[in-house]
Design a protein that fits this description.
mainly alpha, about 0% strand, about 75% helix, single chain
Amino acid sequence: MKQKVIKFFQNLPDEKHEQFNQAYELYRQSPTKNLGTERSLNVQGYSERGLENLLYDLQKMHGVTDLEKVAVPVKNQKAKVESETLLPDYILAFSEEELRAWAQIECVEKGTGLAEVIEMALADEENTIAAILTEELEKIEVESQKLKVESEELIDTNTEGIQATTEPLVDNVAVNTLLQENESLVSENEELQLEKEDLEEENEALKEEVEELKSMPKIDAQSIRVEFPFLSEPNCPDEFKILVADKITAWNRYLELQEQIAAAERGEAPKGDYLAELAKEAVEAFDENQRIYEELNAYAETGKVLGKHPLFKRLQLTREVETMTSEELYLYKGSSAKYFTDNKKSLAKAEKAKNTAKILEINTRVAEREQKLALVNKRLGINKK
């Protein structure tokens, strides 16, 4: 896992949003992650500060040093390494401490003696590091060519000896290949284990949601009358009787939809658009139930109609239309065209001025006019398609 994190830091995406997405995925896979932090990152998403904190936590969690973050050439490095002894350009950008550490690694792995050369370069202010390293690498190249010539001579004179020398190398390659495959399998196993743990957590959360839904009782008219006794009083407005029926329907529908959503999450039903449609309908049912509850609760506390629910406006308009004469109905219908045209012009001016309050006001009265006009057309026997 640490190697995956190091590789990520060495090849950071150009886009910060993509940096956040990849860093979050590595954090999610980390065995020592904080579940609270994981949920918070998932909910809040990308931000400058969030990305900084996430990169810091990821580095500290896996013990990645600053040197390891830049231990290989950066992405799109223009300099090409023509042999194992060629010095990459990016080494020249290292600090003194990073350069010493890099030289030690080169000395141990390749036996080039670069550590001593770099020590001399750092101590000698008259020569640049690049010049001294170049001189040392030229010496190494000469030695490499000599070894190549000697190797070719040995091949010509003693094929069997060369075979005896190369066979152990073949074995070493096989061993290294097996070790790499084993490391890859271990890494894949760790990822599968993390995925299994995530699925188990999601399954437990779904079980809790299902149990909670089962504990929510369905409601009926009797239970609502117990909660709101004014519904049984003679002077109770008729609108509330309609609202009670709508509330029962909305709440029971909400519970049914939640059960269907839980089933889809468990894989017992298709997801995708189907699940999105269920969620949308569930939200609408819950909101409708809540709006009706606010009306009932307000009347129970104050004895006055709150009147925010669309039902009250619809019933008010219906009563107004029912009292209109035939002449008034035709006049209302005839004046509606000009009314809509004038308001369309007013809306355009409000939108140009970015007057939010005025835009809301115009849209509200236009919607009310359209609703009342539909009732007028109905009374006149006009079915507008």
